[in-house]
Specification:
The complex is a heterodimer of chains A (about 325) and B (about 250).
Chain A: H1 7-20, H2 26-49, H3 59-76, H4 81-103, H5 108-128, E1 138-139, E2 144-145, E3 148-149, H6 153-180, H7 182-192, H8 194-199, H9 204-230, E4 232-233, H10 240-253, H11 258-278, H12 283-297, H13 316-325
Antiparallel strand pairs in A: 1-4, 2-3
Helix pairs in contact in A: 1-6, 2-6, 2-9, 2-10, 2-11, 3-4, 3-9, 4-9, 6-7, 6-9, 7-9, 10-11, 11-12
Chain B: E1 3-14, E2 17-28, E3 32-37, H1 43-50, E4 58-63, E5 66-67, H2 73-79, E6 81-83, H3 96-107, H4 121-133, H5 149-161, E7 167-171, H6 182-193, E8 199-203, H7 207-213, E9 216-221, E10 224-229, H8 231-234, H9 238-243
Helix pairs in contact in B: 3-4, 3-5
Classes of the chains: A mainly alpha (about 325), B alpha/beta (about 250).
Chain lengths: ~325, ~250
């Protein structure tokens, strides 16, 4: 079993990353905030992907979190960023708890298409609901934190950066613990052979559902951050291209490493920003070439750069004769 | 001796094909029972019904008096029936010890933990101890994808043993094993499962293995039981020789 960083070290890294925001230029601060927020939802997709299922419709939970926060914030006047993040996570977690058990019975392309279909149904409903602003959406107020109101744009950006980095960092630590846990190992087992998992007395559907709910919670919190950053929400949050972007990050990262999700999200934002700056008419092409390059050279994602392949851990030439001596057919 | 497994009037049809035709059978605790029969005779269908993968059209299956005919494989496993497969069903990207760790987690009384490491010390020790019984302790940290077919077969059986089943079903435990190694492999299996599984049912095509290790043989033919009893008697039965072993002339 591979051993990663100790949780205390990870907490220290999160604190360091948060403080690092103090020296970052303003434009980088907002880029990093978007990267952290996208990493959070992509991390959920990776959590789910460990069971062998990819959600092409995480926009459903992203939008549910965002709309939930926006409605509650406007109705009750809640502007606290931490509270809004929790509300977004809870709204989407509850939705995931309803959808998860129904969808866990499907796998592969059916699972992916169902998630996509549900997100598009939600998108359609939002567009047609004039009480929620229809296709234009609606605005929300400036977020505060623990009673502090940030009127200076630089301080407001840093506050949002800090909350999103801390939240995403803590989610990363939780995901790391989850990956190493009994449930995490069972998730990989479900990915490979869910019938065998059932024969071992484990409910594969329950494993998938739990991972699905975790992914929904992360998506809801991410939706809350996107809302806080834009101070506006519209049905585009649930649109399939939005979901596709998060899958894009997850594919870049691979499913082996939590840290890879953060690196992939940051890399994507950097490539997007710089290609948009220097190649404004062809930046999508650059982004596509970047993804193709990663798939071609790192088919298991960026994480495979530092997660050693299991097959390399023990040299085959030393292990094979042992099996032969045991009288087993090779 | 009491019957661990009691099957009565089991029927299963796939269209016009009769896979089980009014099967009735008792498996007594402590026995090693071999199921023999030509391909399509209904052996694997029987195993699949007993383990909950297939539901019988009619009839009853009782484990220690509890009806299990309508239960899922998961619930059948929890009640005490484990199986291995003709083609090993393993998690090939995981190591042998991790495969065992999944089985050990599943055998726990509580639901899977979110935070307890999958290979916590106790679980890892137990995984290696089980592998050691099969002579595979030094293979514990190797991914299944690197292991030979015979080794995978043993890991598959080791996983089935984790729950200390009341009844262990082995589907062709020596298939894919060379003629020179089949007795050594079967000796290892019988020795390794002895502490945890008192009652064993194994599907087998090799009559030498059947003759040597079974203390009861059940011969299947077209979904029915053709003969049932002592190996020395059943294997000499003219009908068995004609329809199952193919040695009658």
């Amino acid at each position: 079993m591979k051993q990663g960083l100790h949780p205390v070290v990870m907490i220290a890294l999160v604190v360091a990353a948060t403080l690092f925001g103090r020296v970052l230029p303003t434009w980088t601060l907002s880029l990093a905030t978007v990267a952290a927020s996208n990493a959070l939802i992509a991390l959920g997709i990776v959590v789910l992907a460990r069971t062998g299922n990819v959600s092409f419709g995480q926009g459903l939970f992203y939008a549910a979190g965002g709309y939930g926060v926006a409605l509650i914030a406007n109705a009750w006047g809640i502007t606290d960023a931490a509270a809004q993040m929790i509300i977004g996570a809870v709204c989407s977690g509850l939705l995931g708890f309803v959808v998860g058990p129904l969808i866990a019975r499907y796998s592969g392309i059916f699972f992916g298409m169902l998630t996509l279909a549900l997100s598009m149904v939600f998108y359609g409903a939002l567009v047609k609901t004039s009480a929620l602003g229809g296709s234009d959406g609606f605005n929300v107020g400036r977020p505060s934190l623990f009673g502090m109101v940030f009127t200076d744009p630089r301080e407001a950006d840093f506050m949002l950066y800090a909350v999103s980095v801390v939240t995403t960092g803590l989610a990363g630590i939780a995901a790391t613990i989850l990956f190493r846990s009994e449930l995490g190992l069972a998730s990989l087992a479900v990915r490979e052979n869910n019938l065998r998992v059932e024969y071992l007395g484990i409910s594969a559907n329950r494993v998938i559902t739990i991972n699905f709910v975790v992914a929904a919670i992360f998506a809801g919190a991410s939706g809350a951050f996107a809302l806080m950053a834009q101070r506006h929400i519209d049905p585009q949050f649930a649109y399939w291209t939005t979901s596709g972007e998060f899958v894009f990050v997850a594919v870049l990262a691979g499913y082996q490493s939590v840290a890879a999700v953060f690196v992939a999200s940051l890399a994507l934002e950097l490539v997007r920003s710089f290609s948009n700056l220097y190649l404004p008419n062809t930046w999508q092409l650059v982004l596509g070439v970047f993804l193709l390059g990663v798939i071609l050279f790192l088919p298991r994602g960026i994480g495979s750069l530092w997660v050693r392949e299991r097959r390399k851990r023990i040299e085959p030439e030393t292990a094979a004769p042992v099996a032969a001596e045991k009288g087993v057919v090779l | 001796m009491t019957a661990v497994l009691s099957v009565r009037g089991l029927d299963k049809r796939f269209g016009a094909v009769v896979a089980a035709d009014a099967l009735s059978l008792d498996i007594t605790a402590g026995h090693k029972v071999s199921l023999i029969g030509a391909n399509g005779a209904g052996k694997t269908t029987f195993v699949n019904m007993v383990t909950g993968y297939l539901k019988p059209d009619s009839g009853s299956i009782a484990l220690d008096g509890v009806d299990i005919a309508k239960l899922s494989p998961r619930n059948v496993a929890r009640l005490g029936i484990s199986r291995s497969f003709q083609i090993p069903q393993l998690f090939i990207e995981l190591t042998a010890a991790e495969n065992l760790a999944v089985a050990i987690s599943g055998a726990g009384k509580q639901t899977l933990s979110f935070h307890s490491p999958a290979e916590a010390h106790g679980r890892h020790v137990k995984a290696v101890e089980l592998l050691a019984r099969f002579g595979l302790a030094d293979q514990a940290d190797r991914p299944i994808s690197e292991l030979a077919g015979g080794v995978r077969k043993l890991v598959d059986i080791a996983m089935a043993l984790v729950r200390r089943p009341k009844l262990l079903l082995l589907d062709e435990p020596t298939s894919g094993v060379s003629a020179e190694e089949k007795f050594a492999t079967m000796d290892r299996v019988i020795h390794a499962v002895a502490p945890d599984a008192a009652t064993i049912v194994f599907v087998e095509h090799d009559m030498e293995i059947v003759n040597r290790y079974a203390d009861r043989v059940v011969a299947f033919y077209q979904g029915r039981i053709l003969a049932d009893g002592d190996p020395h008697v059943v294997l000499k039965d003219p009908d068995v020789r004609r329809y199952v072993t193919g040695s009658a002339r």
